[in-house]
Design goal:
- It is built from 17 helices and 14 strands.
- It is of the alpha/beta class and about 525 residues long.
- It has a six-stranded parallel beta sheet, with helices on one face. It has a six-stranded parallel beta sheet with strand order 11-10-9-12-13-14, covered by helices on one side.
- The radius of gyration is 24 Å and the shape is globular.
- The relative contact order is 0.12.
Length: about 525
């Protein structure tokens, strides 16, 4: 069974906290920050039209959007500092624009209703402003406009989240970042155009794919080719550090610092995919993967008897965790989490040495992760030459028990003339081929590209199942639809990812099938 099909999904962070939605005060903070950023985007685009660029401010805005969902973990002073910084950028660009227009005798077109925040503005006042902005926006929008706007916001977050990963490699994609600002600027209009919303959604979906492809290219250049490797899930008696998230550069830097010490290092969450790169096999301290599931940070961190490093740009549910041994490389650290600066991991190492570590250790079944590209191509040739009636591609998953029951039943009814390529659970059938790459979307796209060389993605034979709904799911779906994919199924999306009403609009707009029952879904596919 693959790591990302955890049996413990029923007890993940969302469920264990008793709420899977965003609190009203967090929504208000996000709304007011979004207002500041969209207005800043307006002036960035205005100045860019006169050949003026502000790379550091653009990068700052993208990183702010990437971390906007982490606001719940920040202190009041951190939140106010963040608002102050972004508001200062807004006022600075507005003045530059006005001065340029005045100097060059150009008729300036300023935004109406520029938001106003002073150094004396309290957090409660900001929350009131945010609530007002939220209410005003949804009174103005029509239903379809509102839902499309939410889809666009979701894509903006997804693109910015992946940009944050790209920035760690000191790489910029100016054309793709401009798409973010064009999308933000859409929300400065008094009325939203459905056509403009759709165009920006398509543009951002394309940008997201380009960013993920660039990340993959850089990772292979830095860390070597992707290989199929065995990953230990066992633990050994020793002092230990847990590295969680998806940031390879942080993992690499920590492993170099910890080499002289007798400390074991375990990856957690999406860093499972790091074990597929040859570079990380060179570190003797890296022992394997620790954890019960991609989103089980509360359980994993609470049971780990050592120091925990949260890698950069990774939103984690940590507000209920024991503090004192949590560290982060993020520019702004959550309350109770110690900040690591300039890749100096000595505090993490010291904390690990002081912690009790694993007293006995446990033996667990290892897993294979990664793939061999040449073998993959041979397998795809074999699949094509076998001339199956339908070929299913199952994406990543974090199965609830309900979903697990669905897929257990699904493969019981799975016809012999069908074939499935799965990145999630392995049902151990002759007509199913499993590939474990953790939850790495850049690696997923690599495999899809290899497969598309054999079978065009608009083939009537292909059926896509997206069994995980997260920040990257919607742009991946839109990308597949843009390439002509005809049959896409989507499982349940948590309300924290997308509003259920918005999801219904999305599935209708893009012709996505919602999963019902295995028999009914297979019967419908037989008739298509």
């Amino acid at each position: 069974m693959f790591y990302n099909s955890s049996l413990n999904f029923e007890y993940n962070d969302c469920v264990s906290k008793g709420a899977c939605s965003v609190a009203p005060n967090i929504s208000s903070m996000q709304e007011i920050m979004f207002t500041i950023l969209k207005q800043t985007a307006y002036y960035i685009l205005k100045l860019k039209s006169y050949d003026m660029t502000f790379e550091s401010i653009e990068k700052d805005i993208i990183l702010e959007i990437a971390s906007i969902d982490a606001a719940k973990d920040f202190s009041e002073s951190q939140v106010l500092n963040s608002f102050s910084k972004e508001y200062s950028n807004l006022i600075k660009l507005k003045k530059l624009y006005e001065d340029f227009c005045k100097t060059n005798h150009i008729n300036c077109i300023n935004l109406k209703n520029i938001i106003k925040i002073s150094p004396k503005t309290s957090l409660s006042a900001i929350l009131k402003k945010g609530n007002k902005e939220f209410s005003a926006k949804y009174r103005t929008y029509k239903k379809n406009e509102k839902y499309l706007a939410e889809i666009l916001i979701s894509l903006i977050k997804s693109v910015c989240s992946n940009f944050a990963r790209l920035y760690d490699y000191n790489f910029l994609l100016p054309e793709e970042s401009e798409k973010v600002f064009l999308a933000l600027n859409v929300f400065n209009s008094d009325r939203l155009s459905i056509e403009i919303l759709k165009n920006n959604i398509g543009s951002l979906a394309e940008a997201n794919i380009n960013i993920l492809n660039k990340i993959s290219e850089i990772q292979i250049n830095l860390y070597g080719p992707v290989e199929k490797n065995s990953v230990s899930f066992s633990t050994s008696p020793n002092k230990a550090i847990l590295v969680s998230g998806s940031n390879f550069t942080d993992l690499d830097a920590l492993l170099k610092d910890v080499e002289p010490y007798d400390i074991d290092v375990y990856t957690n969450g999406n860093l499972l995919s790091a074990h597929a790169f040859s570079h990380f096999k060179n570190f003797k301290n890296l022992k394997g993967q620790y954890g019960t599931g991609t989103y089980s940070t509360i359980l994993d961190f609470a049971t780990f008897p050592g120091a925990v490093l949260l890698t950069k740009n990774e939103t984690q549910n940590i507000e209920y965790l024991y503090r004192g041994r949590l560290f982060t490389t993020d520019e702004v650290s959550a309350q109770g989490v110690a900040k690591i600066s300039n890749n100096n991991f000595k505090p993490v190492i010291d904390s690990a040495m002081q912690a009790k570590g694993f007293a006995k250790g446990q033996i667990r079944k290892e897993q294979k992760v990664g793939y061999n590209a040449d073998i993959l191509k041979e397998k795809f040739n074999e699949i094509v030459n076998s001339n199956y009636d339908k070929i299913f591609i199952f994406g990543f998953s974090n199965f609830s028990m309900k979903q697990k029951d669905y897929y257990n039943s699904f493969f019981k009814f799975f016809p012999a003339n069908y074939f499935a390529i799965t990145f999630s659970e392995d049902p151990d059938l002759d007509n199913v081929f499993s590939i474990n790459i953790g939850n790495d979307y850049s690696l997923l796209l690599n495999v899809i590209k290899l497969f598309a060389e054999k079978v065009p993605l608009n083939s009537e034979k292909l059926v896509f199942y997206l069994t995980q709904c997260d920040i990257n799911s919607l742009p991946i779906i839109i990308h597949l639809k843009n390439l002509g994919a005809k049959k896409i199924f989507l499982s349940d999306c948590p309300p924290l990812v997308i509003n259920p009403s918005v999801l219904k609009t999305f599935t209708k707009l893009y012709g996505i099938f919602e999963i019902s029952s295995p028999k009914d879904d297979l019967k419908m596919l037989n008739n298509l």
